[in-house]
Amino acid sequence: MTAMNMMPDSADPIVKRHRLSTRLWHWLNALLLYILFTSGLGIFNAHPRLYWGAYGANFDPAWLELDRFGSWWTLPATYNLALSRHWHLTAAPIFAFALLAYMLWSLANRHVSRDLAFHRDELAPRHVWQDIKDHARLRFPTGTAALRYNVLQKASYIGVIFVALPLVILTGLTMSPGMNAALPWLADLFGGRQSARSIHFIAAFALVAFFLVHILMVLLAGPVNEVRSMITGRYKVPEERP
Amino acid sequence: MILARRALLLGATAALTGCDRLARNETVRNALFSAENFHKWAQRSLMARDALAQEFRPDQISPVFRANGTANPNTPEYKAIWRTGFADWRLRVDGKVARPLSLSLSQLRTLPHREQITRHDCVEGWSAIGKWRGVPLRTILDAAGLRQDARYIVFHCADDMGGGRSYYESIDLIDAFHPQTILAFALNDRPLSVANGAPLRLRVERQLGYKQAKYLMRIEAVDSIANIGHGKGGFWEDYAGYDWYAGI
User: Fold this and answer.
1) Are B126 and A76 a contacting pair at CB < 8 A?
2) Which of A40, A83, A162, B35 sits in a 20 to 30 Å window from A127, CA-based?
3) Is the peptide bond before A76 cis (omega within 30 degrees of 0)?
4) pTM of the predicted protein model
5) Is residue B247 part of a domain?
6) B205 touching A, CB under 8 A?
7) Phi, psi at B25, each rounded to 5°
8) Residue A93: its chain B contacts at CB < 8 A?
9) B210-223 pLDDT, tens per residue?
10) Which CATH number fits the domain that encloses residue A218?
11) Does the residue A8 lie in any domain?
12) May I ask which residue range the UniProt record assigns to the signal sequence (chain A) (predicted)?
């Protein structure tokens, strides 16, 4: 409430939007996903072919064959499989345990049930369609409605936190021969090691797609206000549309 | 939008250059290189000591088992033993053992052996499934009698990697005594080809491909790997910075 007192003349009140846990996790992820994606492409460059099934090498049919990603994309910039792996395998466990902690914490502090879970009326086809139309017209919610996540936002946050990120972690573990002996069901779950490698790659690019839309939405919704709310937690509620 | 995109790309490039510079810092480098210890600890804590790598059905075998690394050692010594069909080849077992051994291929073939259809996972990302037949390393080590202070088993190979440096690899006793760790002399029911490591190669199934040393000449039991090669426990570990523990 002190925030409101700081700007007594403003018509737009400032509210506390993001919890500390959300803000910390957000920026840790920004760093780690950046390292994981660029070092991951460095690893991919060692064998830029993808297969389905348990095995797959040069004589087997690949469903995707790419040129090596250029130095703009990879960590390190020049091809160095060992160093790409060191970056990737250092960042990966931190990323995985942070996700686990955030999931448990968000369930415990009711962030998930209060802010992310769908309400029944939100899932009505008409409501979902309205939301899609609003997004397409870039008609962002104003006033108190801007403080709640709409149905597309909820779907993408739940999809990322509870589907895409766990998927990328589990398929990553499936590629490890040691984990394969420890948890052999993982390879069966994903249809074999090479399928897991393909899914890992697809999930990584799905996360990049999320990132691009996410950045676009932040830019369109007011980058200063949005970025500030993710750093300090304080968010200026947009004026009610007349 | 184009400006934003350019700024984003410039930012990304700057960050990558920053990361590359960071990786040259001694502390950062040490941190990056020590993640291996965490993974080794985590995996070994998670799995039973003798947890088996997945084994497959005959119909799951790769049509072609890709050979990688040295395709033929081509040294005068190797050519000489190859010409006689490896009749003159002997596997030496020495170091910290009570009874050093010298074993011929036919002696190895008469020992009890194990057959396993397993997946070979290269550090590069590809996999090939093949059927291996060989003598459990445990059998050889028990026959030689490991001394109390033996901690690692080092595999010396026939391939010269340039400048007189021979390929070598090492594993600790947990993997050395694992039931699937074998000295393989056959792949897919045929004697090992030169490209795949004839006459004998190591299979250590819970680790990546570069640990599967080919063209074995000598097995040495040691108390420390610090004095072998450059002290990192293997050729690629010494010269390329690969992890010694290749379970991930």
Assistant:
1) no
2) A162
3) yes
4) 0.92
5) no
6) yes
7) -70, 135
8) 35, 38-39, 42
9) 999 999 999 999 99
10) 1.20.950.20
11) no
12) none
